[in-house]
Specification:
Leucine Aminopeptidase, subunit E, domain 1, Aminopeptidase, 2 domains, eight-stranded mixed beta sheet
């Protein structure tokens, strides 16, 4: 697993900046004041940059770089504009500006007494993500280094150096990575672990900032876990490998249970099993439980985990099909949230369920025109085998409600291309049967800077998925495609259960980099759902 860069928090008072090597990032407020500890010649050079028109045009959270500055041993100085009363988004953007440029060497960030130092650290960690495990590290032909066999360190690697001694923040045990997948599809790839930068953040009260950054470190771990899952190739992240990685989270205190095909058949999950029946990878449902809130009913998260989606017999066009490794993005977010909750020891009861399947064309694959019976008992006419995610979710949603009687349910899925047509790659689509839950989700997403937009649900759209032969058909065609998918899912929500569906097809793997992520998987949703759980269950 890829882990966030280790960030050490040290006192900024009397810091020797002249002797620092690597890169130096200076957080500069509205008054353009440089920190103490800079040689006079460096102050003069950087002062000229701060007096320039280029600096005047820079917005909060953005940066200007000065290479090989006079009087300093560092290779470059980043001047990062950030007012003292910056927003959370601006502070994380400032950290991301540093993380995007930090490379593999030493990085010193001078935040002084800025009150947003913890958010700067989180932005730096998130933007510093690099899924380079399949790239040969040595370009000169000496071969890639061996993978690190030592246990992976979760958020306790965030540490503060105070006046007395080094203080490691958090006391969770080190978490070993999951064992390599032994299924034939995983091959024998043993990717190297890429080197990371060494980051020191200088601030007025390092121990206080480290405490404030502790939960952020847990969230970064969860987001990295989600990003890794989405970025993994399908020959490695099979359904079995996915399940093994979730089972490994038992080390964090999560209860994890894997239901195999025999158990799924006994339960009547025929809609889910129909999707995966053309694949050599066995279908599974994984249940993860975090019991941190006493005897209260749990909050349920349900994720679509199609590890690769060819479209089945209704096969997709070849162009772009390689990106269908991301069709397990909903399950990836659920896994990342559960990891975050365990690492930060959340005071809430949450259950996460993911349906893991692969949608392949084969002699055994389901066909357009097939009719299957769901766990609920409703019959489904398969119009399009590429409308498979809703069939997976239908059974897992019904199972989650019947077994856990949750206080509310949120499901996530890279469900429709139609939501990209409607909202592009900036926002996910929100569908809900409960206004309070929808409002809470929108509030949490806004607080975390993750785009979310509410879409309509209405009985009129049910007419588009009426079947001549069965209770419902799995596709209503192009018109209102994301809405009819949500209407389909709503059939499998029990009366009186608050429910929301997040269609994350556009935000899971956007075409370019984002503020907090390089090009590739974003981990969208981990921050929002973690915030929602805090606000709903951990206040007071």
């Amino acid at each position: 697993m890829t882990h966030p860069v280790e960030i050490r928090f040290e006192p900024s008072a009397d810091a020797d900046l002249a002797g620092r090597t690597g890169r130096l990032a200076l957080i500069v407020g509205a008054e353009n004041r440089l920190p103490r500890g800079l040689p006079r010649v460096a102050q003069q050079a950087l002062g000229r940059a701060l007096a320039s028109k280029s600096w005047a045009a820079i917005k909060p959270g953005a940066a200007m770089e000065v290479a090989f500055p006079a009087g300093l041993a560092v290779d470059a100085v980043q001047l990062v504009r950030l007012p003292l009363r910056a927003t959370v988004a601006e502070a994380r953007k400032a950290g991301a500006a540093i993380g995007a440029r930090m490379g593999k060497g030493a990085v010193t960030v001078v935040a002084g007494n800025h009150r947003s130092a913890a958010d700067i650290a989180l932005g730096l960690a998130l933007r510093g993500y690099d899924f380079g495990v399949y790239k040969s590290a040595d370009k000169d032909g000496a071969g890639a280094p061996e993978a690190d066999e030592s246990p992976a360190m979760p958020p306790q690697s965030v540490s503060a150096t105070g006046a007395a001694a080094d203080a490691v923040i958090a006391d969770a045990a080190a978490t070993p990575d999951a064992a390599p997948d032994e299924t034939p599809g995983a091959d024998s790839i043993e990717p190297p672990q890429p080197d990371k930068a060494s980051v020191t953040l200088l601030c007025a009260d390092p121990e206080a900032v480290a405490r404030a950054a502790r939960d952020g470190a847990a969230r970064a771990e969860g987001i990295f876990f989600t990003r890794d899952l989405v970025n993994e190739p399908a020959n490695v992240l099979t359904t079995a490998d996915f399940a093994d990685r979730l089972l490994a989270m038992r080390e964090l205190g999560l209860e994890v249970e894997v239901l195999d095909e025999d158990e799924l058949a006994r339960l009547g999950m025929r809609a889910l099993l129909a999707v995966g029946q053309g694949s050599e990878s066995p279908s599974k449902v994984v249940v993860m439980r975090w019991q941190g809130g006493g005897d209260e009913p749990p909050f349920a998260l349900v994720g679509k985990g199609v590890v690769f989606d060819t479209g089945g017999i209704s096969i997709k066009p070849a162009a772009g099909m390689e990106e269908m490794t991301m069709d397990m993005g909903g399950a990836g977010v659920v896994a990342g949230v559960m990891r975050t909750l365990a690492l930060r020891r959340a005071r809430a009861n949450v259950v996460g369920l993911v349906g893991l399947v692969e949608n392949m064309p084969d002699g055994r694959a389901q066909r357009p025109g097939d009719i299957v019976r769901s766990m609920k008992g409703d019959t489904i006419e398969v119009i399009n085998t590429d409308a498979e995610g809703r069939m997976v979710l239908a059974d897992v949603l019904w199972y989650a409600q019947g077994r856990f009687n949750p206080a509310a349910v949120v499901n996530l899925a890279t469900l429709t291309g139609a939501i990209i047509v409607a909202l592009g790659h900036d926002k996910a689509g929100l569908f809900a049967n409960d206004d309070a839950l929808a409002a809470d989700l929108l509030k949490a997403a806004e607080a975390e800077g993750e785009g979310l937009w509410r879409m309509p649900l209405a009985p009129a759209y049910d007419d588009l998925i009426k079947s001549r032969l069965a209770d419902v058909k799995n596709s209503g065609g192009r018109a209102a495609g994301s809405i009819t998918a949500a209407q389909f899912l709503q059939r499998f929500v029990r009366k009186g259960t608050p429910w929301a569906h997040l269609d994350i097809a556009g935000v899971t793997l956007p075409p370019g980099e984002t503020t907090l992520a390089p090009k590739g998987a974003t981990g969208w949703g981990v921050l929002t759902l973690d915030r929602l759980i805090r606000n709903r269950f951990e206040q007071g």
